[in-house]
Amino acid sequence: MEILKTEFDGLLILRPRVFGDARGYFFEKFSLREFQAVAGPVVFVQENQSRSVYGVVRGLHFQKEPYAQAKLVSCVRGRVLDVVLDLRRDSATFGKHFSIELSSENHLQMYVPKGFAHGFSVLSPEAVFQYKCDEYYHPEAEDGVQALDPALGIDWKIPAGDMIMSDKDAARHNLLK
What we know:
The protein is mainly beta.
């Protein structure tokens, strides 16, 4: 597995070595040894999966301290535009976002360290998305940032008329103001 660093401190892209032939393919999706050699001592305690249809925009979500979560995310069916927003006030990339297409074709994963809001938009007819988390979900710590706030400058790659958001996500505010 190749682990690529980004300009955002701690934000990593994992690219597996895929071995394919006429039968299909095989790849090692995760190696704790290789991952921790780059990311440090992270232990995942919960794994979540969601299914969404084209146009869905989920996010931007995070959990407040002391229950902040680091996540390892992947798209196992379809294609998504995965987006993170740096909320770490002491970071050189505070208030900036990073996006990457994750798909069942490219097999990429993204490691999102604590201190980021996370979301994605579904670019294919359907997408199945998985999240490994290093902290359990705590409803009282749930929060988010308004994903469509023009001040963030995020292009979700979905026409405005095709976007589908939950009422909760649509009502979110921008924490950066």
